[in-house]
């Protein structure tokens, strides 16, 4: 058993693809025409970090209820965790791309961590190896 996909509700497919692929460095795995449960057109968009099995389904908000959770899917808590091998290089690349970090890097028993917001405002932990 494995966790295959986690959905992130986004405001716009293409803006989300740009952020997750160009800024965070994930791979665009799928971008295909699809249908909603009631037959309306939508896209099936999946991004995944290199080498990862679990991916993100980028779901464009459809209707008021979904639009209201864009950027607040986890009630302003950190809800997503991106582990990288080179914390400093990744953070520097993200800062250069104007990603908003809401905390300075700190060392925890489980590694280096800094909190950032994605393009919609969801909070993520950027996680790296513990400092030596």
Unreliable segments of 5+ consecutive residues: none
Strand order of the largest sheet: 1-4-3-2
Instruction: Tally the beta strands.
Output: 8
- The helix fraction, in percent, is 10-25%
Q: Indicate the mean pLDDT.
A: 96
CATH architecture of the largest domain: Roll
SSE order, as H and E?
EHEEEHEHEEE
Provide structural commentary.
The protein has 132 residues and is an alpha/beta fold. The chain folds into two domains: 1-63, 2,3-Dihydroxybiphenyl 1,2-Dioxygenase, domain 1; 75-132, 2,3-Dihydroxybiphenyl 1,2-Dioxygenase, domain 1. The chain is 20% helix and 39% strand. The protein contains three helices and eight strands; from the N terminus they run βαβββαβαβββ. It has a four-stranded mixed beta sheet with strand order 1-4-3-2. β6 and β7 (111-117) form a beta hairpin. The longest helix is centred in the first third of the chain and has 11 residues, at 13-23. It is globular. The N and C termini lie far apart (34 Å). The model has no long low-confidence stretch (mean pLDDT 96).
Q: What's a concise summary of this model?
A:
With 132 residues, the protein is α/β, with parallel strands linked by helices.
Characteristics:
132 residues, alpha/beta, 2,3-Dihydroxybiphenyl 1,2-Dioxygenase, domain 1, four-stranded mixed sheet, 8 strands, 20% helix
Write the layout of secondary structure elements.
Blueprint (H helix, E strand, L loop, with lengths): L4 E6 L2 H11 L3 E9 L5 E8 L6 E6 L3 H6 L8 E6 L3 H10 L9 E3 L2 E7 L5 E6 L4
Parallel strand pairs: 1-4, 5-8
Antiparallel strand pairs: 2-3, 3-4, 6-7, 7-8
